[in-house]
DNA sequence: TATGAATGAGTGTTCATTCAT
DNA sequence: GATGAATGAACACTCATTCAT
């Protein structure tokens, strides 16, 4: 195959994602990545020039993908509550896959503030603009307590992301096993919906293709 | 003075806290700490033996202090909602002081899982046990939607901590200045209360010594 | 060449042996070894992981080699006196090559008693067992004064090794040049034989392939 | 007392001798010496200016003392064999007290050849000159095989000193306990006499004040 | 006389990176 | 494309030494 190299590049990228975003090894060395991927350390530089550029590429990739999916969900023509239910479900599932992603981004930006750029996708519409009108409509109808879209989204993000980020802290304090904690996390999908809207997640939503109880 | 050394030790400790927990420089070197504190690098080893032990000491100190204050708040004889209002206020203020603390803990535990010990204070009562009965009472009275104490506390922690943790992310995405963001954070005290209890924060609480709008 | 690295590794090893066992620089730093070998300091860690492991490798190598040669000599079918003559010759020549070896071993064991292991080769036969019977036979025949094999071997070792070990001391006290001292050492081959057996070293032995006057 | 300082100085000196010459810790730090002596580290510099000067002082002291006693023995009017018996006894006992002394001297001289000076006591008569005539007389009388005084003394030194120096090596190879080895060393007093003179150590010598079986 | 505090020079070690093959 | 060898820059850490008290 001609694309043997392409596969190797992908192998390195996926391995690095695992190490950084799943295992949370922020300081993982190129050697550790190479070992885990079963390739020569020098190959990392062959494909990515430097550790730093590999990092940036990973971040860009993972952040863009996330943003696109989030926007896709918010752009659907679903009713507001279903849309948010899908959003919650996506965030939680995403967090289960890459629990340390936020942690990683935060640390990286603290280290090199220039990297903020990666976050603010060029000419991309802000999430809060996507829901502003709908949210106002819901408030007007009295289906949700008055709140700005920024606080609304921050609430959502917080309730979805923090429990994943703080997995190790919470698990330790409450003495939960990995299984118990994953169960706890999935339960949260409903809890978060109820906390946000102050009503139970309707059975109709649970069963739709938004698949809020997946995984 | 006899306590000249004690002062220097404290200076190093406080400087390190700033660098690690306020500036979020997880990988700060001993040299950077020494420079910032204006002392010789070797002094850090003189007082703390190793970078690792300095880290542990800082964590222990800051975590214990936080846990004690949190428990103190939850142990007061205040009505439930006031207690929680105070709790929120404390968490947010705390987060403004040391925004990167959770981030730091998470990274440290990912690196050295043994450090979980530092979190689980010896023979300390779990927070959720402190509120279990009161929460059940509130639920029975219909003053809050049914929820387990674990999820209740997780909601609280998430809503308070994440916005601080993710300051750099959110600030970038929404193009907020530092001042705007601090304002946003303080606003959240009321937003969080409303999100949790689905009622406005009563004026009476705002004005009491729980001082929910402080800072 | 494929073995370029192997050569460099050997270069480092041989250089280190010279510095430690010939020049007697017990405290030689990795930098000094690297300088002497004309390589980068980091290469030492590339090949040997740590200074400690380099040391252990050198010791193991040099001790094993010595033990094997000693046992080979004691296992030959030569007459006893010739065997011992060969043994003396080997020890003295060996000592001229690596005068500080014993000194090094002694210091290392004082520093890390665990290293005794390196000395006691796994399942290796003790030297004194190899000569016990022959020595008893010689004593019975009245060709040597009664002595235990342990004392006999200790006498041999002492008479051969100490003059090399203490080269600097003796040379200073007696004001000998390097050349004079080497002559003195080679003379000792005969002196030692005479001291042990109380007879002159026979001309026949001198000329044989045991080559007692070599070097 | 006015001489409190003098006592402290002596305490440090004796402690250092133990560490260096008895325990064989060549690389012992000033901190280790201070700890062992129970004094402040800075005191070592107060009394001895530097670690190096402390070392030199210890060496000078211990070497001079040894040389004087050795010369005293060789200068007595005892018959030659008794004199040598006393010499052997002294060397072995000395070695039991400070087994690592020679090792230390050798290492120091390898490190700083200037220190040879310490060995060659100013205007002191060489040991071999002290016995030359007597030895020649003994050879003429046929009481000992022909040998130069240099080789004779080297034999003596080797047979007495090496077993002490190489204690750790020999003990390991032959699996001897400390007690067994000390017994072995004391036995050597007679063995050495026999090896040198090819006759048993007379009972009359054993019982005299030269006390060859002491300790 | 004695000491805690402070420092500079060095030491082993790690790591990302480069290069010849 | 891929790799072993090699390197420079940095890192935590140690230690003898100095100094003010």
Q: Can you summarize the main beta sheet of chain A?
A: none
What pair of chains forms the biggest interface? C-D, 51 and 51 residues
How far is the N terminus from the C terminus of chain A? 36 Å
Tally the structural domains of chain A.
Answer: 2
Strand content bin of chain A:
under 5%
The CATH architecture of the largest domain in chain A is: Orthogonal Bundle
Uncertain residue segments of chain A: none
CATH third-tier fold name of the largest domain in chain A = Tetracycline Repressor, domain 2
The chain-level mean pLDDT of chain A equals 90
Rough outline of chain A = globular
The rounded Rg of chain A comes to: 19 Å
Helix content of chain A: over 70%
* Total count of strands of chain A: 0
């Amino acid at each position: 195959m001609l694309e043997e190299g392409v596969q190797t590049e992908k192998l390195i990228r996926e391995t690095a994602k695992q190490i950084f975003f799943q295992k949370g090894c922020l300081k993982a060395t190129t050697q550790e990545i190479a070992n885990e991927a079963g390739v020569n350390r020098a190959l990392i530089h062959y494909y990515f020039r430097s550790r730093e550029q590999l990092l940036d590429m990973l971040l860009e990739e993972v952040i863009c993908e996330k943003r696109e999916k989030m926007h896709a969900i918010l752009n659907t023509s679903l009713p507001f509550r279903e849309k948010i239910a899908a959003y919650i479900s996506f965030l939680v599932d995403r967090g289960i896959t890459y629990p340390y992603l936020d942690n990683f981004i935060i640390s990286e930006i603290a280290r090199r503030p220039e990297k903020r750029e990666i976050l603010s996708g060029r000419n991309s519409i802000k999430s809060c603009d996507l829901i502003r009108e709908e949210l106002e409509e819901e408030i007007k109808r009295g289906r949700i307590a008055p709140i700005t879209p920024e606080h609304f989204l921050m609430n959502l993000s917080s309730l979805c992301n923090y429990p994943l980020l703080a997995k190790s802290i919470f698990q330790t304090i409450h003495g939960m096993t990995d299984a118990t904690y994953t169960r706890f996390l999935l339960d949260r999908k409903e809890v978060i919906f109820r906390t946000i809207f102050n009503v139970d997640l309707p059975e109709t939503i649970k069963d739709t293709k938004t698949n809020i109880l997946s995984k």
